[in-house]
Amino acid sequence: MIPVRRIVATCALGALGVALSACGASGPPGTPKPAPPGPPASASGSAVPSRPPTLAPGPGGLTPVFTHGPRTRGRTVALTFDADMTADEGPRAAGGEHFDNPRLINTLRAFKVPATVFMTGRWADQYPAQARTLGRDPLFEVANHSYSHYAFTKDCYGLPTVSRDRMRADVERAYAAFTKAGVPHAMPYFRFPGGCYDQQALRTLSAVGITAVQWDVVSGDAFATDSDAVARQVLEGVKPGSVVVMHCTRSAAPATERALRTIVPELRKRGFRFVKVSELIGAANQHP
To answer: What is the CA radius of gyration of the chain?
Structure first.
């Protein structure tokens, strides 16, 4: 029996279930233009296989959970960015709150850092042009972070909860939102809102054919204003094969872009190579 797992998320959400904001791809005049449409590519520029790597199902056919890549197959690290906009945050967006961070996306492009964006379907509905741009840029891969950013377990940082009979529909609704927005190759990877899951959630989602992706390095960027502290926490935690959880946002993670300007050069100085989650999963399949 798999025990309930509660991976520490990068934010403590309040009683109102306020969720973290997300990332976008547009930017002011003069910023780099997005890459032309095309199939996803690896960091080396080669095309990603038509069937992205996934982990084999867990015991009893449960949805497999991926936390980090091999520790002994080179100094690789995956930066992941959660784009979590809840289903009920439309009024906040209409009121002028920005659930995107074009500067952060453009910094990743300037540094040529591949990354995996775990996007909610609600965010794709709010920003379809930006979702499409991210989905068609070979530097990035778009993965599933649910439609509504409601929790798949109880007592998950104050988030509202998806009922068991709606879990699969919520995940599939997110994929439908990506398709509607024009994301051509959404990956078969899923990140639980808040990082909260249990055996019931893994069993319920098993028929979707996804790999659940967690992390082994918490950046601490949610609501942080000290970019040096965020950078320090990441740099102290990264190991070969690490998956780092961060957020691309203007309102809820304002220090992340500045932290990247320290994190990226320093990790490269240490000999690390940035990859997408798909490359780490592929490596894990070859060298478990």
So the answer is: 17
